[in-house]
Amino acid sequence: MKFIIATNNAKKLTELKRILIPLGIDAISAKEAGITLDDVEETGTTFKENSYLKAYSACKKTGLPAIADDSGICVDALDGRPGIYSARFAGEDASDEEKNNLLLKQLEDVGGDNRKAHYTAAITCVFPNGDKLQAEGKCFGEIARTPDGDGGFGYDPIFLYNGVSFGKVSAEEKDKVSHRGNALRMMKEELEKYLEENNVNE
């Protein structure tokens, strides 16, 4: 069974495909399907709600089961912000560097013991018959004082997991512990159960 990945974010698409393919999930991009996905207004109040909106839109447009992710970073000292607004934290067209710099500025007076944060990723799979599956993964760490490394994307250069920046670890190392990796492994289990219970031939 083919699934379409509901994202126009090239870096996120690369990471999703990198994790999904070894899990045995046949996922294709909109480009590979020969279509352009509509930009979806993220009006939800949770990561799960926004991932559902994106997956539903892609499924409706393509007629294929769709997998979508909504993710962000939640900082304890900022009462969980930027959270679902992580991508738009520094403005609609802000670069990753600008978002990182703004977050660091907001935490410049916050001590090391209070810089705890976690990434959250919600994954939703929507089927053409209206069924949906959801999973949510988290990865706990803290915010660095300065960016370190040029790997990953988003807030990775300032997110420390076990004291090491996500911007410095390999893609494989990150996938083993990341919020997105955790959520997708849970989604794989949900998908396997769903396909078996509904006698769907893969």
How would you describe this protein?
- There is one protein chain.
- The protein has 6 helices and 7 strands.
- It has 202 residues and is of the alpha/beta class.
- It has one domain: Maf protein, CATH 3.90.950.10.
- The protein has a 7-stranded mixed beta sheet with strand order 2-1-3-4-5-6-7.
- α5 crosses α6.
- It starts with a strand and ends in a 5-residue tail after the last helix.
Number of strands: 7
Report the radius of gyration as a whole number of Å: 17 Å
Biggest beta sheet attributes? 7 strands, mixed
Based on the coordinates given, report the CATH architecture.
Alpha-Beta Complex
Strand order of the largest sheet: 2-1-3-4-5-6-7
Q: Structural class from helices and strands? A: alpha/beta
Taken in chain order, the helices and strands follow as EHEHHEHEEEEHH
Number of domains: 1
Give the percentage of residues in beta strands: 15-25%
**Measured distance between first and last alpha carbons:** 4 Å
Overall outline: globular
Summarize the helices and strands and which ones pair or pack.
Layout: E1 2-5, H1 10-20, E2 26-28, H2 30-33, H3 47-62, E3 66-75, H4 96-106, E4 116-126, E5 132-143, E6 159-161, E7 164-165, H5 171-177, H6 179-197
Parallel strand pairs: 1-2, 1-3
Antiparallel strand pairs: 3-4, 4-5, 5-6, 6-7
Helix pairs in contact: 5-6
